[in-house]
Amino acid sequence: MKIRRILIANRGEIAVRIIKTAHKMNIETVAVKTAAEPNAMFLSQADMVYDNTEDISEIPVFLNIDKLIEIALKTKSDAVHPGYGFLAENAYFAQKCIDNKIAFIGPSPDAIYKMGNKTIARKIALAAGIPMAMGSEGNISNEEEAVSIAEKIGYPVIIKAASGGGGRGMRIVRKPEEMEKMFIIASKEAEKAFNDPSVFIEKYIENPKHIEFQILGDTKGNIIHLGERECSIQRKHQKLLEEAPSGALNDKLRKTMGNIAVQIAGAVKYYSAGTVEFLLDSEKNFYFMEMNTRIQVEHPVTEIITGIDLIEQQIRIAMGETIRYRQEDIKLKGWAIECRINAEDVQAGFAPDPGKIEKISLPSDHYVRIDTGVQAGSVIVPSYDSMIAKLIVKGKDRRDALKNCKMALDKVWIKGTKTTLPFFRMLIRNPKFIEGDFTTAFIEKDLEKYYQSSEYEEMLAAWLATKLFVEENLLDKSINIDFENGKEMSPWLLNKRINQF
Amino acid sequence: MSTNKQGIKKLYALSSENKRFCFPQPLKHSIRIGKRDYEVKLKADDKYGTYILWKNRKYPVEVVRSRQNKYEILFNDISYTFTVETPFSMQRMKVLSAARGKIDKETLKAPMPGKIIDVLVREGSSVLRGEPLVILEAMKMQNEIQSPVNGQIVRVLAKPDSNVMKDDILVEIKVE
Q: Three-state SS for B147?
């Protein structure tokens, strides 16, 4: 089956990313214009734009299954790419596409359903003899049951949402006294986020590394892995920096874990791109955590070290093609690091800082790849995620990649919102991070400060504050024009964001 | 060129962490490091907006907020808050703060705009540092707002299901 036109059921940088590969493959793309972001960058890159700005429904169109199917049919799209988030892991949406003879660029509805429900996924993995953390057999219905299971497997335990993902509906419990409160919070959060309050319990693995394997499978039953990604740098289960490969794995462990990842994918007859997530403890024991049945935000680091375009593979597999690579063809070359530059205030505990991107300038060196859906004038709206750009840097090894990353970070220039840049500038100078000595607890436990600031930078800021004070209070303003340096200006005239109270 | 009306010889910029930066008046467009003066320039152009040029490097700067002598400066994506004091106001401040004594009340503010999901304490509750007090939902994430201190709750302003703005006071705690 040939795909000629893809409806992109997504927005932002991933929409831009999909369009790029589709164009390389001579496939047309359809993007959806929404009232929330009528000037978004991805719209200008698609071949067709479906105008959905009149839609005033509270549900974003990217979550509206019937509407998306209607748009796909109206625009004569023969395939839908869901990207990540939104409906990417919604089995019903995948089935609806198939029912309407639209190719769903992703795995089968059955695989999405089974892996999406964590308790079912646990059962499948258990039956396949996959190493896993001890836990409840299925969902648990109340805190008494939770306490009794926790007593059996030992504290600390983690409560997880059965339909969960992305860190929502997860709570760590260290003492029986905390169980009731945490159970209620996790369950409430799960219901709100996933429309399903069911939760289960697992032994909490202290200070693990988050290691995930990229899987590719086709509809003929071939499954391979493309190596691992190290995603331990996360905060509240939200990944901030990912790299590939991981310094924690040697070839032998990579092979063992990779084979098990392939085995898990095989258990649900997986096709398309997917990710098998593991926790790796300090003794190098690993535990299956979950499988993500979509393209991941951090997929570029794998693309860089394997040279394989994962979106292209997804599209080819959706067209029924056989994967051209055998496992032995996959060679990992070099090192890649991705920094997620988000509109967040690192100094306020990574609180979202939505707003207009007034200026943006991103490096274009040969060792840099930028995936972004944002340009100067774009608005980071509160209703969507806070991603501004992914800065992906490569090097011949980790040290080289880190050196390049440090240079690239200093070249990123964003004005208008606060960003996670100061965090990365600090992180890549942190000795433990440089040594590879970090776990998922790194940000919460090992860092005293979340941002990089030199003494001189603070002094310069102090100088500016003093200059403002002088101009406002002490100077006779009529003579405050420096004709010699005509370009130098008073910041009072320049700053639109200033709020005087 | 700069006629200093009050005859002030120096100004102090005090950071929120009480670091003191002293700048002789009239303010020079250079900063001394060791024995050398390095020129500081405040500039602006279409591509970069406002920036400070120092030692051949551009740093993005913005004035986020100003109120009387208090300035919040965004410098290289990091915000710093300073109060600028004259030698006279500095002296007055010292006297005042000595008279006031130690601050014993902590106000817990919303770190981001969002919706209050749950309030876990009531007036009179004793709380420990790190104990969750309020559950605030922002950008689809539920966040536990934890007590920064050991103490007793004196006032609860957060109400479940209500929306709050950034910096709205949620809870007041008497420090113990």
A: coil
- Selecting from B25, B84, B140 the residue whose C-beta is nearest the C-beta of A465 gives B84
CATH number of A209-446: 3.30.470.20
Instruction: Give me the domain span that covers residue B155.
Output: 105-175
Q: For residue A389, which amino acid is it?
A: A
Residue B1 lies in a domain: no
Pair (B17, B85) in one structural domain: yes
Distance CA A330, CA A251 (A): 13
Share the mean pLDDT of chain B: 86
Answer yes or no: do B73 and B139 share one domain. Answer: no
- Architecture per CATH, domain A134-203, reads as 2-Layer Sandwich (3.30)
Task: Write out pLDDT tens, residues A282-306.
Answer: 999 999 999 999 999 999 999 999 9
Task: Report pLDDT digits (tens) over B137-169.
Answer: 876 677 888 888 888 999 999 999 888 888 889
Phi then psi dihedrals of residue A187, to 5 deg: -65, -45
Known catalytic residue: A294?
A: yes
Same domain as B94, residue B109: no
Residues B25 and B94 in one domain: yes
Annotated catalytic residue, options A171, A254, A294, A398: A294
Whether A497 sits inside 8 A of B62 (CB atoms) is yes
- Reported as a single tens digit per residue, the pLDDT across B64-73 is 888 889 999 9
pLDDT attached to residue B10? 93
pTM of the model: 0.86
Residue A484 sits at the chain B interface (C-beta within 8 Å): no
Partner-chain residue, chosen from A456, A461, A468, that has the shortest CB–CB distance to B80: A461
Of the candidates B42, B60, B80, the beta carbon closest to that of A488 is on: B42
Whether B71 and A413 lie within 8 Å, measured CB to CB? no
Q: Nearest CA to CA, how far is B41 from chain A (Å)?
A: 7
Q: Where in chain A is the domain with CATH 3.30.1490.20?
A: 134-203
Domain count for chain B: 2
Task: Return the closest-CA partner of residue B62 out of B46, B47, B42.
Answer: B42
- Class of residue A472 by CB neighbours under 10 A (exposed 0-12, middle 13-18, buried 19+): middle
H or E stretch covering A260: helix A251-267
The residue-averaged pLDDT of A373-390 equals 94
